[in-house]
Amino acid sequence: MNEQHAERMKYITSVFLYGTAGMFLRQVSLPSEIVAMCNGLLGTLVILTYMRMKRKPFHREAIRRNAGLLLASGALLGLNWVFLYAAYVTTTVAIASLCNYTAPLIVVLLAPLVLKEKQSAKKLFCVLLAFLGILMVSGVFTGADTNLTGVLYGLLAAVSFAAFVFCNRKMEQMPALERAVIQLFVSAMTILPYVLYKNLRQEIRPDARSLLVILIMGTLHTGIAYCLYFSGMEKLPIQTVAILGYLEPVTAVFCSAVFLKEPMTLAGWAGAALVILAAVLSEMHPTIRR
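Above: the chain's sequence. Below: its structure in token form.
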């Protein structure tokens, strides 16, 4: 019981860190794509160091067997970061996070086509509920001054992450940490050409605060958070993992409102509640009675 409690706390810490990432990004004066690339590289170094300390070997046969999916998933993770970080700096952290958090519901919607899994009417209802929530958050019903470009970036981030999830689901016997370190490195290499294309002729002068925040995000929010996330995910019941994962958008909305003082309309708060409610309902299972 004590071991499971420790793993639960690791997982809660990881999703809490993910939820605060947008707040930290707002303190960086560099382009968001550079931050995303640095996060991938720093996260790779942190996990490699962790694996070395724990003397965890690389399983070359598993890597070779899943090479195509590892490359594809790493590229998709890089796209997720580029779109999500662009959403963070284009619209509010709360709206960006909520749009990105529709990824699990996109997975639910497309699972019958991609994974040949049967889908229940309840799952489809949850998808529609979340879609309504995102429309309310975006402000299209109320005419609120919401940056729709930021909403679009957030939704593109969600689509990228949903595809990332499908790639992971199709992998065969791939250890979690090895998968993570390869995906993080590939994600950074995927972002590199875009960074060069967009910033090669730009004069970039990072200040000390930006460099410190990038170091914190790459080490804490990416490397350490990934280690805690995969450690908890491997040892906790899947429903516990799903429910605790909802702390991420809740944390992001809280940080947006309290620390960044970002405004959200009453309809936006109602939409946020609908998105989170839809995610919770989609993972709830009826109790089996004898």
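The chain has 13 helices and no strands.
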